[in-house]
């Protein structure tokens, strides 16, 4: 059972992760091209920008393309996070079962 869950979470993170990063790049590029203001700390398009997208901060921006790219990036970011945490839990549980 642990193997099935592990592959499920790895698959989730492995497919949602690239989608999140790709849409994050599109969102950042859209924001740069349109000259829209960045929230302080998100100008570089790094982790804080991902977190801003995952909290759907782009919903207040009056740019439909940025909202669309950002919404997809946010949803995929949460799915990636679930996949990574689920993978870690499965590995830790399997290691705990093997040792105990």
Task: Write the SSE topology.
Elements: H1 2-34, H2 47-54, H3 64-99
Helix pairs in contact: 1-3, 2-3
Globally, the shape reads elongated
Indicate the radius of gyration in whole angstroms.
17 Å
Number of helices: 3
First-last Cα distance: 17 Å
Low-confidence stretches: none
Q: What structural category arises from helix and sheet content?
A: mainly alpha
Overall mean pLDDT score?
93
Helix content: over 70%
How many beta-strand segments? 0
Provide the domain count: 1
Strand content: under 5%
User: Mind summarizing the main beta sheet?
Assistant: none
Query: What is the H/E order?
Result: HHH
Describe the structure.
The structure is a single chain. This protein has 100 residues and is mainly α. The protein is built from three helices and no strands. The protein has one domain (2-99).
